[in-house]
Design goal:
The complex is a heterotrimer of chains A (about 325), B (about 500) and C (about 300). Chain A is mostly helical. Chain A has helices at about 1-10, 15-20, 25-35, 40-65, 70-90, 95-125, 125-145, 180-200, 200-210, 210-215, 220-250, 260-270, 275-300, 305-335. Chain B is an alpha/beta fold. Classes of the chains: A mainly alpha (about 325), B alpha/beta (about 500), C mainly alpha (about 300).
Amino acid sequence: MPVISLVLGFLSAAPLFFAIGVNPILAYQQVLGVFLSVDGLTESLTRGIPLMLASIGLCLPFKMNFWNIGAEGQLFMGAFGATAMVFLLPESPAFILLGSMMIMGFIFGGLWGLIPAYLKARLEVNEVLTTLMLNSVAILWVDYLVYGPWRDPEGFGFPLTPMFPLNARLPWIPGTRIHAGLLIGLICAVIVYVFLARSKWGYELKVTGESRLAAKYAGINYLRLTLLVMLISGGLAGLAGMGLVSGIVLRLRHGISPGYGYSAIIIAWLARLHPLAAIPVSILFGGLLVAGDALQIGLGLAFATALVFQALILLFVVGAEVLTRYRLVLTWERS
Amino acid sequence: MKEIVKRFPGVVANDHVDFELRAGEVHGLLGENGAGKTTLMNVLYGILRPDEGEIYIRGEKVDVGSPREAIRLGIGMVHQNFKLVEPHTVMENILLGLKEPAFILDVKDAANKILEISRRYELPIDPKARIWQLSMGERQRVEILKALYRGANILVLDEPTSVLTPPETKELFRFIAQMAGEGRSVVFITHKLDEVIAISDRVTVLRAGRNVDTLQREQLDKTRLASMMVGREVLFTLRKSAVAVGEPVLETKHVTVMGDRGFPAVKDLTLTIRGGQILGVAGIAGNGQRELTEVITGMRSIASGEVRLCGKEIGRDSISHRIEEGIAYIPEDRVGVAAPQGLTVAQDLVLRRYREKPFSNGVFLNQDEIERNAEKLIKEFNIMVSGKDAPARTLSGGNLQKMILARELSGRPKLIVAAYPTRGLDVGATEYVRSLLLKQRETGAAVLMVSEDLDEILSLSDMIAVMYGGEVVGTVPATEANVEEIGLMMGGSLRKP
Amino acid sequence: MSLLAHTVQAGTPLLFGTVGEIYAERSGVLNLGVEGMMAIGALIAFMTSFYTGNIGLAIASAMIAGALLSLIHAFLSTSMRANQIVSGLAITILGLGLSGFLGKPMIGMTAPRLTSFPIPILAEIPIIGPILFSQDVLVYTSILSALVLWFVLFKTRPGLNARSVGENPAMADSLGLNVYLIRYVCVLLGGVMAGLAGAYLSLMYTPLWIEGMTAGRGWIVIALTIFATWNPLRALLGAYLFGGVYALQFRLQAIGIATQTPQFLLMLPYITAIVGLVLISAEAVKRRIGVPAALGLPYVRGES
């Protein structure tokens, strides 16, 4: 079922191509070209890495009904933390520098996630709104840095830091741009999966997601659980940010993430909050981003085409799920 | 209302009930919880449709399909839980849902009408005040004004004095008398004997869904009403074996607990339960029993006083600690609280115990142990379920309760707090649950059981405590229990310190 | 143009968006799709103006476009009880995507724009005249709509109904109010206003079509909704306050002052919103100027 909606959503973009005077077949050819070529696939994997990390992290808070919309901001803060390390320890050997970048990326992302967690657990402040607001604050903070103190003096005034030195770049598979972040992502997927399925906290998550009263009854400490979960979720988004600056873009700049944090929410939802399922969905979305690039280069279309695909696929899946649930409700009522 | 029948799954809430209300009369409707009083009035008000029976208003047969219909027919109801929107003003709440005024609200006519009604019945209120600013008594006035504004000449009040102070109660009675004097009728649902005797022209007593009788004013007598309300002979089967009573397990000393509405739900309550004893807490629901169980189990915080478990003060401990110390809790809300429906039976069976040794080692859960535990308990307690991995929502009511009991009792608790443990269960499940509690008693555990079923309290308890208005108004050993006395205590008319 | 006049212009799209979002949230529906609706409004307005030269038509079609997009969100979140967050984000991504996609060929082009329309006598008033009364039709509309919609929300029955639905839908339902219809209307209103905001951006505020017209204003709108405590009058205050920050930033950039401190200023709506939320969370305060109690929760009849 979900695969059908996926395909349908994908194809529903056809009339739009007509509207803009482009032959849809050409467009789909370009897109398929992405998925059917080695280059395209490796690029998809590459672009999917930050999506993977962030969406895996999101499976945790969503499972307990904590609506973390702040992955974008947590990502930015992670990117910030990692970049700070580059400025602090520019001469260190790669594994120390990269290691500290990862740690800082995780910590800063995690801290950014702890704020709304604490506010919700202690004061019942709506987490959708707080995480959303913190996104903008984080983005502006990075803007301040890249327009100001961290700006590349030889960057022609553009809001970006100098290129990262070699020891600050994640190792990559030669011939592709796939960097070590992929390995980290896969490992995290497994860790989070085990966490959810086997650990004490995974159980507490499930119970809390069912009902907070039931969780209270079970003796679960909501504050501690929320803080732990958001630390991990924010941390993973922060790692995604680190991966972006250290593996792909190789510097910190304005708009380092074009909405990956929001896409991650969609991906986590599509993956039904299952961390292992988030992997293929992330790669798919990564592929859509590459397709966007391809369409831009090949047919002069806006990169935003990728967003259109994302949205249409999502709407079709939502629609399909809603229809099946609707039918279920109808039959249930009849019985 | 003639021969009204209303059934719900598993229970007949109204069993061929006749009810007659005269113009200008104040008619008290008395009964325990579950007697069917609120159900009957909900039928009148159109919230529920009767399965059988007819309603006649001023001689004409009517079909009350919805509250809007009821209002149109001149019936108004003030519920126990006020239906007011807190951030809105008084006037906005009164006008909500009406057709007029159609657009602009701050119209002179509407405001004047409200003030006029308010003045006429001496129910002072500021139309511009916001609900959250008002006291409970004032909020009730708004509810009454709502009904009067819509032209009610039959006014039903459901347990209205439960939220009022004594002077406010007097005011309410004055108002009721005024309404009756004008030729309007008032139905006064209550479980409080003194009050119902004070203001009623007639009193109808319901018990277990049936209309026991209707008494005239002259015939009203506390004791008679109490026994009609509670209606049983003192018969309790001596199914219990004599058990040596041990040390105090639970002691609450001068415990005060705040309720949801801002005033104390439990006041300065002191009681003791010893090992091997079952303390049955009797009383109409809403007199603090729920808050009492919550403060003992940790679900609600204590305002002042002590709660001791085997001598140790635990009144401010975390819930997980209390679980560790051996407090089992079988709450009133099974589905939402005690047995999350989305989990499997095996998962629910470790809900409060997953931190313990065999089930978890601090980080990971031991799936094998959990499953083994589930299989064992399913067999031992004869829980009818397709398998340990079946979702909890597939369990029937009785089996769900068995599952909860299996979990709570398998940990060898020192204290068992059970709230309405057999409510809604069929005969077989009920017997089984009761036998389980008795068995626990035999092994030396202390049991606090809140129940609305006097039979159950009389037959299971060693000691009976009656709660009224947040206090224990009387404690009697079950062997000396006198049903009439208990009825009087439940109605607030008797105290036995 | 004076700084203050610029402030009013910068604040206008924010005002439109915020007032619309206030209505949606007051009825209990969280609309995260504002950014996308604005983007679509901007695009459709620009396209219509480009191809027909008719400004009025352009504005109208922007309103319709916003409404259509919000209809999807209303349908999914209200009738279908889907997750409001996912639904809203989907709309935002769709709106941004379509706007970028269909707008690509027009980047850098210009289209007939809104002209200023000074109000005859009022524009002569010293100081205030040039700021408030020498603006264009949409500015006047935005201020008027804020005032009118404030009145409707608090002083009329439709407004009372909308607020009640957002506070306690179960009770509203039992009193005979049509919860679904009211929510649809409020969300649609939000869409129309977002469309207007977008139209203003492309027809007046920005001289030509660029990529990324909305520049995150949708998220500011959501912050401003909280900042304004769900009150259209306070939205006026908030919108112009932040319009002022934008205008200030523009000036500083033009002069060539390093564009650093503006970021901290720009952070203010978000930080204030968070602080505001924390303050509101105190139970007592919650009742007075609180978040609509049912915000974000789908309504299912029969569920308590």
